[in-house]
Write a structure and sequence with these properties.
The chain is 62% helix and 5% strand. By secondary structure, it is mainly alpha-helical. It starts with 7 loop residues before the first helix and ends with a helix. The structure holds 2-acetamido-2-deoxy-beta-D-glucopyranose (NAG) (2 copies) and calcium ion (CA) (2 copies). One 2-acetamido-2-deoxy-beta-D-glucopyranose (NAG) binds at residues 55, 88, 90-92, 94. One of its GO terms (biological process) is regulation of potassium ion transmembrane transport.
């Protein structure tokens, strides 16, 4: 019956309400996230489109990222990102997992966002970020951008980023950055907040 009204928002609304989030309904997600019911419906429609099974796996992340970054190799970054979304650590991200993380990234407080970013950088999820972890993250980002897109990028740029990061963050000089060091430094330093925009554009 939607075909009788193909123009205007009525048909659009009907189409949206036809896409229902079955597992538990959208109401709990309206509570758990900072998205409206309507936004969740749109997100769910996109999610179901990409992942008809209702869960996302690592391959899905890799294929989506390779479309956004066709000139680089985004597989490593997509892998790290998937692990940050996969909060149950069982290889699949449900719609709920997905929108809770997305809400934090897009609509969370500054502290929420910083916590989320720290968890992304903390590759083995042991509560501290090592130089090796930060190096892997930086390389994955530079690989993703690709030499074709950024031909003048210096080979030592990732290392400089890591050195800079540790110089600012590792207050007690023990070689690892804890969440406390990370939050304290980020919240105080306007220039770090600025440089974190690099990540805004790739998450
Ligand atoms: C991971 O856990 C979720 C939620 O409990 C479940 O839906 C999914 O099937 C699990 N995935 C695997 C690979 O076990
Ligand atoms: C929603 O926004 C509030 C206020 O910024 C924040 O405290 C809360 O953690 C956010 N929740 C999510 C899941 O984004
Ligand atoms: Ca770690
Ligand atoms: Ca430290």
């Amino acid at each position: 019956k939607a075909s009788a009204r193909t123009h205007g928002s009525t048909a659009d609304d009907e189409e949206l309400s036809a896409v229902r989030y079955r597992p538990e309904g959208l109401d709990p997600l309206v509570q758990k996230t900072n998205f409206s019911r309507r936004e969740l419906q749109v997100l769910y429609r996109g999610f179901k489109n990409e992942c008809p099974s209702g869960v996302v796996n690592e391959e899905t992340f890799k294929s989506i990222y390779s479309q956004f970054f066709p000139h680089g190799d985004s597989s490593m970054y997509a892998h790290f990102l998937f692990e940050a979304f996969d909060t149950r650590n069982n290889g699949s991200v449900t719609f709920e997992d997905f929108v809770v993380s997305l809400s934090i990234i897009l609509r969370g407080s500054i502290t929420d966002k910083l916590n989320w970013a720290f968890n992304l950088y903390d590759l083995n999820k042991d509560g501290c970020v090592t130089r090796e972890e930060m190096t892997e993250i930086m390389h994955s980002i530079y690989d993703m951008m690709g030499k074709y897109t950024y031909p003048c990028m210096e080979d030592n740029a990732p290392k400089e980023h890591v050195d800079n990061f540790f110089q600012k963050m590792d207050k007690n000089n023990d070689g690892v950055v804890t969440i406390e060091e990370f939050l304290e430094t980020c919240q105080k330093d306007e220039s770090i907040m600025q440089s974190m925009h690099m990540f805004d554009s790739v998450i």
